[in-house]
Specification:
about 575 residues; eight-stranded antiparallel β-sheet; 2 domains; TIM Barrel; globular; 11 helices; alpha+beta; Beta-galactosidase, Chain A, domain 5
């Protein structure tokens, strides 16, 4: 072959190699106006518009009793997907260097006009492996990132329960160099850092009440921050094979040029527009809930259900329309039994199964909402018959039947099990049969189950490990229910009641819906006046909150726009009992 042909072939081969490298380099990057992301074998880099960077080291797992850094190579980029809320998603995958039978996927979600990103990891195995805990505790580091260029730090907590107000409260706590020197551990779920020019945020999407943490930020003397698992993030012996992947919760990161105000503005936009695929949950509707009226009837010597009827409801809708209310929510007792959730169609309640109620709401352009305890199933319900294998168990005892707001006795079912699909399907049915487009989830206790009959462990795991796993996965499955319903019935809204202690409060559920906190004020027991859930007054119908005695009005307006009087001891006792069962 002539020498000039050989030279030409070599040049063409070199050009092909260069072109391939360039294509691969572009494939391993994400570019927007506000940031760039570049992926490497053992890390990925977030770079702001002015060139400042955060370098995230990939996760460290414990697999088959060995600590394994999830360094991956080569990295394959998937197609960029456009999501309904205007964000984009791209997945990058690669084989783990220490074991090519294991693969790690990195999923990024972002908006072109916002600096906050969401990301999570999925670990898969082509041959059998297991996640392990040789020391009996979670050994998972989601990432570590150097913050050596920053000097101003702040931990942001969302779930400090304040007995004075009987509600969770926002706390912002300063962090300084001594905390890094002392290897402080912070619950978050948000950590802010600034360097005088830019401000960064690290966050994770989960929920629990402070100080009961399932993840934490570990501060290191070299000014690095690691996000690591504390408990419940996975099970000892959890399989990794062709049928079982391990998917993390969503994590967040971002940076802005400027200070805290600029970051707060960008993060608010992220929460309002980009974290959720269910946009109706972000619209500022005016909302009314019947619970205040029902409690008032109970205080007057009646029952919670004595006014939950057709005539009262139609009158209230007329008034609500004149007030400009958008959403009318029937609270507990609109149903005759939990689980199947049929309308309470007795002659004293809604004999036409809400047809007139829905027609009047439609006439005024209003929406129908209902109260749901997604864990409850009445003893005679078809739901219980089909899901007996998933009755909750705690401390070796199965859930026993008990009253649910003066309706048929119920037991509780395990959401972190195949039952989650059944309750989601039932709610979809309610959207179609009754026209419901708003669901209030209530009485969902994070510490209610340690059985071995769900997705949170087997007999090979201890009851405590199963309880931790249930508590960790509970907000994940609440979101799965909401997302499945919203996919089948777009514009449906979910809210999660976190008024009481032992509820899952954090960033997690905000990807699917919103929270409600009923501003009852403090209960008498918050001031040690009486035992928990008791009243100092003889008739038992007086509100157990100090606001009922020490304020000029028995009504308080909650954060969802409802005017509701404080709760009675029996009401809250029932609500707590329903959550525990």
């Amino acid at each position: 072959m002539p020498s000039f042909l050989i030279a030409t072939m070599k040049i063409n081969l070199l050009l092909c190699c260069i072109l391939t490298l360039a294509v691969n380099a572009r494939a391993q990057e994400i570019h927007t106006r506000d940031f760039d992301i570049h992926l490497g074998a053992g890390q990925w880099t977030y770079r702001t518009s002015v060139g400042e960077t955060l370098v995230f080291h990939l996760p460290v797992f414990n697999i088959d009793g060995q600590r394994m850094n999830a360094s991956i190579s080569p990295i394959d980029a998937g197609p960029i997907k456009s999501l309904p809320n205007g964000t984009k998603e791209e997945t990058f995958t690669g084989a783990i260097a220490g074991d090519h039978h294991l693969r790690l996927a990195l999923v990024f979600r972002w908006a072109e006009d916002n600096p906050i990103i969401r990301f999570r990891y999925t670990l898969t195995g082509t041959t059998p492996h297991r996640l392990t805990k040789p020391a009996g505790v979670d050994e998972l580091r989601y990432y570590s990132v150097s913050m050596s260029g920053c000097s101003g730090f702040k931990e942001v907590r969302l779930s400090d329960f304040n007995g004075k107000y009987h509600a969770t409260a926002l706390q912002e706590v300063g962090v300084d160099g001594r905390d890094f020197d002392d290897t402080a551990r912070l619950m978050g779920p948000m950590l802010e850092a600034a360097d005088g020019r830019s401000t960064f945020i690290l966050a994770y999407e989960h929920g629990s009440q402070f100080p009961d943490r399932y993840l934490e930020f570990l501060l290191e003397p070299d000014r690095s921050v690691a996000l690591r698992a504390v408990k419940g993030n996975y099970l000892n012996g959890q399989p990794l094979d062709g049928e079982h992947d391990y998917e993390t919760i969503w994590l967040e990161a971002g940076g802005v040029v400027g200070g805290e105000e600029q970051m707060a503005s960008a993060y608010r936009t992220f929460i309002l527009k980009y974290i959720s695929q269910n946009p109706d949950s972000r619209k500022p509707y005016i909302y009314y809930n019947t619970w205040g009226r029902q409690e008032r009837a109970k205080w007057a010597g009646g029952t919670y259900l004595s006014t939950e009827n057709l005539a009262t409801t139609l009158k209230e809708i007329e008034v609500a329309h004149r007030m400009g209310v958008d959403i009318y929510v029937l609270d507990a007792g609109w149903f005759s039994k939990t689980g199947d959730w049929p309308v309470n169609s007795g002659p004293a309640f809604f004999p036409d199964t809400l047809r007139q109620v829905k027609a009047l709401l439609d006439k005024y352009g209003m929406r129908l909402g209902v109260w749901i305890n997604p864990t409850a199933a009445a003893v005679s319900s078809e739901m219980l018959k089909r899901n007996r294998d998933y009755i909750m168990e705690l401390h070796g005892k199965k859930s026993e039947p008990g009253p649910i707001w003066e309706t048929e006795n119920s037991v509780t079912l395990d959401i972190v099990s195949p039952y989650w699909n059944a309750i989601a399907d039932k709610l979809i049915q309610l959207t179609r049969d009754l026209g419901v487009s708003y669901f209030t989830f209530d009485a969902v206790d994070q510490y209610a189950c340690d059985g071995a009959n769900g997705y949170h462990g087997t007999e090979a795991n201890s009851p405590q490990e199963r309880a931790d796993s249930y508590a960790f996965q509970l907000p994940v499955y609440l979101s799965k229910i909401a997302d499945k319903v919203c996919a089948a019935a777009p514009n449906t809204i979910f809210e999660l009641d976190v008024t009481e202690e032992s509820r899952s409060m954090g960033l997690g559920f905000l990807s699917s819906g919103k929270y409600i906190i009923l501003n009852n004020g403090a209960y008498f027991h918050n001031f040690d006046i009486v035992p928990e859930w008791q009243t100092p007054l003889a008739n038992g119908n007086t509100p157990p909150t100090t606001s009922g005695l020490f304020t000029t009005s028995s009504n308080v307006t909650n954060r969802s726009g409802t005017t509701s009087p404080p709760a009675t001891p029996s009401a809250k006792a029932n609500r707590a009992t329903a959550a525990r069962r």
